[in-house]
Design a protein that fits this description.
490 residues, five-stranded parallel β-sheet, single chain, FAD/NAD(P)-binding domain, 30% helix
Amino acid sequence: MDHKYIEKMLSKMDEDLSKNGMSRRDAMKLAGIAGAGMFMGGATAASAAEEAAAKSNAKGKIVIVGGGLAGMSTAARLTLNLKNPDITVIEPQELSVSYQPGQTLVGAGIWDEDDIAYKRDDFVPDGVKIIKERAILFNPQENKLTTDKGTVVSYDYLILATGLHLDFERIRGLEEAGRAMSAGDNERLLKALGDDGICSIYTAKGATKTWEQMQKYIAQAKSGKKTKFVFTHPNTPVKCGGAPKKIMYLTNARLKEAGARENAELTFYPNGGAMFGVPEYHDAILGQFKREDFKWHYRHNLIEVDKEKKIAVFDAKWQEKGPWDPVLKDFEVIPKHEKVRVPYDFLHITPPQLAPREIAESDLGSAKGWVPVNKETLQHIRYENVFSLGDVAQVPMGKTGGSARKQYKVVVENLIALMNGKKLESKYAGYTVCPLITDIGTVMLAEFDWTVKPTPSFPLDPTVERWIWWLMKVYALKPMTIYGMLSGRA
């Protein structure tokens, strides 16, 4: 653990707390947190006891494709639970374990890109082999895969944690951007977006570019010119469904800070028909939008960008009542759609997202591309020796770091059970958490699962924005992730 970072984090937290006349201990009591372990990301008494427990003698060659948060955390936890682990991680990206949730904060100038960059090789668990290549061909019938450099890797058990791809090339006018990942070389994408108001926080370097563009157009608004800020949300599943709104809230905060808000129009264009899938959170967000004088238009999917004219083109959908159907004894519903052209000065794009081609086009993928798994056990529906977790797994909701934190423990427990010939009893209940930043200094901690109801971990109303959750977001969640999950304990 980086103790200097922890000390710095706690010092900043104490400084913020003191402004509100509160100690760190009182803050944790307020949040219902039993101790500092959560903030520190270190081992609790429970995790220490777990580590000391008898390890399994189960044997087998385990290959994990993907060395990001989900994959590397799974590798670490397996080493804690197996006496003689034989684990290989296949991951080409040097910065694969970088802290992606921090990209929103980078995009608003609160953090720098260096604050979220972490090297893969610093987090490879002892005894785990690493292949710095990309898996491109899968042969699950023979329990083999092939990398982009021609390396053939065999396995007894396979875990897919590849993450997803950002499909910018699907948007007309941005075809040259291709597909991108959060980490790695994204110069092609940045070149395609240009320097005239188009941005996206969905890559690390893109988040830095977002802050540069945001400042440019805040200055324009401050000069007295009416400035249009447009934010999109696509018609595909996305990682961290709250992020498209978070960057909008933070842009609003920076505009107010600069005294430029009255000259800015902020408009949100989601593909869906609600702000959030959980009604209680939808209602809370709608209230926040009205309070901040945001505009919004449901069922609008970005399909084209005219960079020269600065026009965003959306496919807008709605339904109209048709003629009476005497058989069904009801009016027909006729789907309608049209292209809507929206001028912008600043355009934040949340790109369409999809499974990597090598997964989607293999026998391990589904018709939609994602890895089809039992949503509770996370075991592949066709290949019992294959599991999947994280963004690439085909489960309802669940594309967040908070989801991966629950999923990787389920995968480890069920994989070891399978290796021992036992029933898979560990279940993922769909837990997802979204610390929805609503201002610089406030966060609404939206927790939920497949019940589609709020499932708060703390004894506080989860629909209320609180500065205590801001402190957790800015100071606590990164060390809990980097030094907790990636050690296999958090």
